[in-house]
Amino acid sequence: MVKLLMSVALIICCFAFPLGAQQVRIQSVQSSENITYQYYYDLLQLILTQTADDYGSADIVVINTPLSQSRGFSMLKADLLDVFWAGTTVERERKFHAIKIPLVGGLLGARVPVIVRDRFAEFEAINTPRQLQQLVACQGAQWPDSDILEYNGYRVERVITFQLIYSMLKQQRCDYFPRGLNEAYAEVNTKGNESLMVYDKLILHYPLPMYFFVSNDHPRLAQRITQGLEALITTGQLHVFIEQHETTRDMFPLSKYNNSRIFDLANPLLPPQTPFQNQDLWIDLPHPTKNAAALVE
């Protein structure tokens, strides 16, 4: 009888007091210049908070090991991370659960050159892709962008770690760093980057959505993030979040790119299921060729 009462008491205790919050493990910031890391952290936190009534509380846990994209996906597969954000590819969507809602409206694929200020006049004189193709872009060794640039005839210096890229640019070991509109301004405004500038009169444009990726072994977490993002899209909150977050707000208003020279690139890595048909997911640049799907060969 005593054992029975103890068992009943234990059951009542478990139902009366909720278990600890779910832990959601994510990557750490790659360097002090990787300012837009905070954007994805804050967005994920917003999603977890707004879905708490349906899924329970959740705490973000940062795994304090700087990760390359390859290593990050390996840790996701090994169940050492729960969520990883990155630009999508066919291979990544084949191996992992991609939540197909672009986290910055697709603007990751609008790349502006970050350059040394002293070279402003040189970039002012660039009017054709062929001219830019003579220069060398620093880019992440494992980023889809490197493959996309090379596929389109651009010269790329692949750099293993993010923190080295800005150092190499300042030393002029490369000519420019093509950075997403959502990334460039906040990073250049970081202390120590006073010699750099965002040259936004020139834009390399290709379709490359940034997604949250989740292991295929965690369908409930994927469902939770999907539900949260869909709610933010439906209410318009995601676009407001993009326009107002401290790391992305400086790329607005988009009208300032009306006179920018835009070079369109094809993305051979883009999955054919990319949801271009849902216009609510995308933020368009002022551009005469707005159909991103038409850029894929």
Notes on the protein architecture:
This protein has 297 residues and is an alpha/beta fold. It folds into 2 domains: 161 residues, Periplasmic binding protein-like II (D-Maltodextrin-Binding Protein, domain 2); 97 residues, Periplasmic binding protein-like II (D-Maltodextrin-Binding Protein, domain 2, 3-Layer(aba) Sandwich), CATH 3.40.190. It is built from 12 helices and 12 strands. The strands form 4 sheets. Strands 5, 8, 9, 10 and 12 form a 5-stranded mixed β-sheet that branches. The protein is globular, with a radius of gyration of 21 Å. The N terminus and C terminus are likely disordered. Keywords: Signal.
